[in-house]
Amino acid sequence: MTDGRRFLWTALFAAWVLAFAYAFIAYWTTAPEGDSFLRGANRIVTYLGWQGAAGMLAVAIFGVGRAWPKGVGARRLSAVPLVLALLHVAAIMGIIAWARFAS
Q: 42: burial class by Cβ within 10 Å (0-12, 13-18, 19+)?
């Protein structure tokens, strides 16, 4: 593995950690705006925007990590961000389904 590839993987992973963590920080530090039903929607949009950025970085990390040989820790670790992104999508879809179909 070249040093450039290692640096790219490390930089992408660091950017993912920052985007993933900042999604939660931005959600809790953003003041709710709006009236009635949409009050606080800006917080949710901020959270989902940062999680979307983290998700795109997760796909890039997964792609770069596949270049490592099988069994190497970096290759296995590159799947963690993608799994977390997919769990986020599944949780959001579950919440939407629950809200739509719960009687």
A: middle
Distance CA 97, CA 54 (A): 24
Q: To which residue do tokens 């931005």 refer?
A: 26
Number of Cβ within 10 Å of residue 58's Cβ equals 26
Q: pLDDT, tens digit, for every residue of 2-30?
A: 899 999 999 999 999 999 999 999 999 98
pTM more than 0.85: yes
Count, in order, helices (H) and strands (E) of the chain: 4, 0
Residue appearing with tokens 């389904």? 97
DSSP string, 52-72: HHHHHHHHHHHHHHTTSPTT-
Contact 44, 57 (CB under 8 A): no
Element (H, E) at 8: helix 3-29
